[in-house]
Amino acid sequence: MTTGIRIRTFGRTRAVVLAGVVLLLLGGQGFADVEEPAAPATVQSLSETIQSMNIGLDTMWVTIAAMLVFFMQAGFGMVEAGFIRAKNTCNILTKNFLDYSLASLMFFLVGYAFMFGDGSFIGREGFCLLHVPDVIAGTNVQKWAFWFFQAAFCGAAATIVAGGMAERMKFPAYLMYTVIISALVYPIIGHWIWGGGWLAKLGFKDFAGSTVVHATGGWAAFIGTILLGPRLGKYVNGKTKAIAGHNIPLACLGVFILWFGWFGFNPGSTLAVGDGSGLALVAMNTNLSAAAGAVTAMIVVWILMGKPDLSMTMNGALAGLVAITAPCAFVTPSASILIGAIGGVIVVLGVLLLDHIRVDDPVGAVPVHGMNGLWGTIAVGLFDVQDGLFNGGGAKLLGTQVLGTLCVSLFVIASMGLVFFAIRKTIGLRVGRDEELRGLDIGEHGMESYAGFQIFVTE
Amino acid sequence: MTTGIRIRTFGRTRAVVLAGVVLLLLGGQGFADVEEPAAPATVQSLSETIQSMNIGLDTMWVTIAAMLVFFMQAGFGMVEAGFIRAKNTCNILTKNFLDYSLASLMFFLVGYAFMFGDGSFIGREGFCLLHVPDVIAGTNVQKWAFWFFQAAFCGAAATIVAGGMAERMKFPAYLMYTVIISALVYPIIGHWIWGGGWLAKLGFKDFAGSTVVHATGGWAAFIGTILLGPRLGKYVNGKTKAIAGHNIPLACLGVFILWFGWFGFNPGSTLAVGDGSGLALVAMNTNLSAAAGAVTAMIVVWILMGKPDLSMTMNGALAGLVAITAPCAFVTPSASILIGAIGGVIVVLGVLLLDHIRVDDPVGAVPVHGMNGLWGTIAVGLFDVQDGLFNGGGAKLLGTQVLGTLCVSLFVIASMGLVFFAIRKTIGLRVGRDEELRGLDIGEHGMESYAGFQIFVTE
Amino acid sequence: MTTGIRIRTFGRTRAVVLAGVVLLLLGGQGFADVEEPAAPATVQSLSETIQSMNIGLDTMWVTIAAMLVFFMQAGFGMVEAGFIRAKNTCNILTKNFLDYSLASLMFFLVGYAFMFGDGSFIGREGFCLLHVPDVIAGTNVQKWAFWFFQAAFCGAAATIVAGGMAERMKFPAYLMYTVIISALVYPIIGHWIWGGGWLAKLGFKDFAGSTVVHATGGWAAFIGTILLGPRLGKYVNGKTKAIAGHNIPLACLGVFILWFGWFGFNPGSTLAVGDGSGLALVAMNTNLSAAAGAVTAMIVVWILMGKPDLSMTMNGALAGLVAITAPCAFVTPSASILIGAIGGVIVVLGVLLLDHIRVDDPVGAVPVHGMNGLWGTIAVGLFDVQDGLFNGGGAKLLGTQVLGTLCVSLFVIASMGLVFFAIRKTIGLRVGRDEELRGLDIGEHGMESYAGFQIFVTE
């Protein structure tokens, strides 16, 4: 099978860039012996060279951004692992490892085609990237880079769910879920918004995925954790018991890695370097929103609970990041601070609300990704410098944003609810009581996370 | 409020880059449907395109560098956490989280204006980046990227202090300190050296901040830890007791992250890609100096203490990194090895000296950042390829360097001494004896770092 | 000594880039006051500007890639630390720290010259980079960046061995080994393949180092661990005892960091941005192969051992990464999936095989780097889109690949066998029995990794 590989032909590259790429043709890092003598430059040849450099530059930018988005996987893994108990740590990390790996393969085989191919409800072209043009239409980005960037996004959507359903979900059930969300559900939503589908046509704006990625992952986690039921010992005799995370420094590192990776997620979504103003504004807004979210979450939890809790502060930063993901390219830095600040309040209240309604979400996936995915998407309608309500743009965009993000959230809850229900009826969603008490590391994987350490296994 | 947002207008971008940025206008990662037909290229149009690409390229470079500098925050957090006791780990990580977040907000509101605005002792323009031109004068860097890069530096200066004052400082006192250093003290020093102030006018050279960032943070930690007093049990009956760090692998990871992030800190300070020689030399010098510092620190501690201690080796690498920060663009690779090697010796002797004079600096912030900040700045006067003493440049530059770094260090000690003294007299600097014994995680934050693990709480 | 430093002269840089680099001349991040008025652009001047920008762009790309390769050192450290027992963790991290530092210094002093200088068996020019031209011939990369990239590769080759010989090797012996491999053995092999030596002349293709780096490190670990002998308690009374790693989350983080860093290792080996197609394809192939390796390793271990073991899954991802390193630029994405999938099978069978023949390799360095280094190199001969056996290219390339990788592997086993044997006969390779039981952290370094934690020290 050929996927139209083109590495041997550099038709666009000329003159000055030739020396460099010649290496690629000869194989490996060694030195080329021969250099073609450059013809005298003309306006035409310079224009072509610049065009090729632009494609190279934008492709490099998107590739670097994709690396950073990939690295978020480590962030998710460490946050999720750190916030749960030691006895289930290998389990969540295996899920984390496998969801990215399976998402990569699925997104190559079918996901990309479903998301970016022509079609109305769902795309239907580009399986295995066959017949996709070398440079993605409307961009200066080589298809390999565009795929890599989008595949990493797909992996992020998949992995969000692991945290919400942690400490009790069967491993084979998780593998099944992950194939379905990355091959089908995420690409369908992506098609609607970024693939030219009905929401794109309505003018729905989601710059880097508050809805596409985070609301999708967050609300899938919501319905999943409801269908799973709470962890043993979480709600006993009408009381909610806090189950402390086993490794807060690891979780903290994870949040920093996520914040770092978000600088690929959001600025990379420009898909172009241009004159740099776009990617730079997005990076600054992303940073300010995260900072504001951390500060307000700390203040709110301090007021409500009496102490500045670190876990909540970290979730506040993540809330700010999720919330700014949709609007990051459309709003001012000052608005970004406000958006993140509100995100930090939402996440604290969201955590309390979930405990109140007895939905057991061990790492806060629903408040962070679901609720703030909604909030960030709606915030575009309020703060957009062109069409936002607060900038005199009227309520049209706001309406579209509310409609779009609600439709997606409901679609996710319905479709993933069906999926989880079907899994529950067949291979089963939840491990047995004994295994849950003893820990899934032993039960599912036959290993333990911290051999040699003395650890109390609780409930 | 508007901060002069310009994302909708790409006046400079033309012809070939248009396709890419058009996306930005239409919102999100989806595809643009329309492409303006490119007019035939002329020398004039190509020249403008190249100018725009250059701005894009330099802005992208500085933005990527800023991401790396941000990531150093994770490195600082893990080093500081790993080198202290488990019972105070959440506390230092919360400080780490909040100092970066507050520094980001402060540097947006006032810090940037104090540092880079016109003015003599302190800048007075550019609050919230209002009226700052799109592209920073004298560079090809968009203001958003320049701000992000500088804000991350500000956060680094603030966080250095957390380590020196670890395990006993009140959390609210830390928040107060962090607002003052990031909003006022750091920007003033930055203004003197990088904002066109009196040291800049004298010809003082500090390429990436051995003095601006590291001496500032290091000497603030010095005066802070003196005013706090040593940890309980550190100096008992005339004897110094080693208090071992609780998680050396975490600290080691932190050092690697710092080293990695330093490749944004130093090479990014070129603020330009140019023909690449500047950023590449800086990267190489940074790497060689760190390597040399690690090796000499290991050798010296091996000779003095009998074993190749890992903590000291890691601090040796950090010492090399701090020392090369000022001279990295002005010296040869061979000189970089020498500068780092001497840094590695300084850090070991500095740790011993501090214990001798009973200044309790749990993570070595003063020897690493303060002493090597001085050394690196002075090293410019010795090894500068143009004006260094050892390159026949006479003692003029050396004199300026010594004067500048001493003035800054004394200013920091005086101003921050005043700040810490005022905090001590009002809300108090230090937690109570019982809380210190039990650990600040419980006392300040109501949580613990390693739930389930059996840990001996010492002293 | 001068190493031909050129930072003061930017002969190639003109017109538009001038503003940016002027900063560099004036020292530090401050603003330049003066800007030379740009002469009117001509085709000639634009052509020179573009040439300079190309050098800048490719140099920046290689420098960023080098940073990522450096960061792999953290990945190696965390994987190796996590997979062994707590009592030997500081020891392996110190080795990890020092091998990179020593490799950096050695590769500056002599390694670069041995690898890339003219010469037949070994290079003989470019010690301390003296007389190396500013821009590396056949590329658009400044020598400083090229050196940094190659030095980071050298460090990677050195550090692979630490894992295989973990938990029993003397620290001074390790320092001696590391100097020899980084100053001599690795550069010789690199010279043969990337420095224009005999394998390069035969047409041997190793894009990013399946053989140069991984087979070298892997087979050095193989002979080293044989000469060391197994850990106490590993093979007792004809039975193999599993010795569990002490911190699987840390190892998992390490694998993610390695995967992340590999995006510098492989795509960076293009040494050029060009039109981006090369680096983007390489990035995508790298990702797919790693994903496939993780999935097949999980499946195979699940079938053979009954549970989806996380350690094996992680080693599967690493196997996929090693295997795709040689062919990543020469094969299609579909072939990359196949190559990685086979790599995942090889690593599981390889671990079992080593236990069968009683070679005690605590972290799986030999199956991951040695066996998959071979496999990846051979895979070029099968799947190369131009000359691969399966693409109708005949068996010529395949023959060259098999010959080349086998010669290198045998050379490594012979030369490093001699080195380890000589070390054993002089200062000794292995710590004493008591020290091994108590742990090398105390014995070699006088410290412990997790002060305060209650840990069972096993065997």
Mind explaining what this structure looks like?
Three copies of one chain form a homotrimer. With 459 residues, chain A is an all-alpha fold. Chain A has one domain (53-445): Ammonium transporter AmtB like domains (Ammonium transporter fold), CATH 1.10.3430. The first copy, chain A, is 65% helix and 1% strand. Chain A has 15 helices and two strands. Chain A has helices at 15-26, 43-83, 89-116, 143-164, 171-194, 198-202, 210-228, 248-265, 277-305, 310-325, 333-356, 365-383, 396-425, 433-438, 440-445, and strands spanning 235-236, 239-240. The first copy, chain A, has a two-stranded antiparallel ribbon. In chain A, α2 (43-83) runs parallel beside α4 (143-164), α5 (171-194) packs antiparallel against α13 (396-425) and α8 (248-265) runs parallel beside α10. Chain A is globular. Chain A starts with 14 loop residues before the first helix and ends in a 14-residue tail after the last helix. In chain A, 71% of the residues are buried. The model of chain A is unreliable at 1-27 and 30-35 (pLDDT under 50). Chains in contact: A-B, A-C, B-C. At the A-B interface, α2, α8, α9, α10 and α11 of A face α1, α2, α3 and α4 of B.
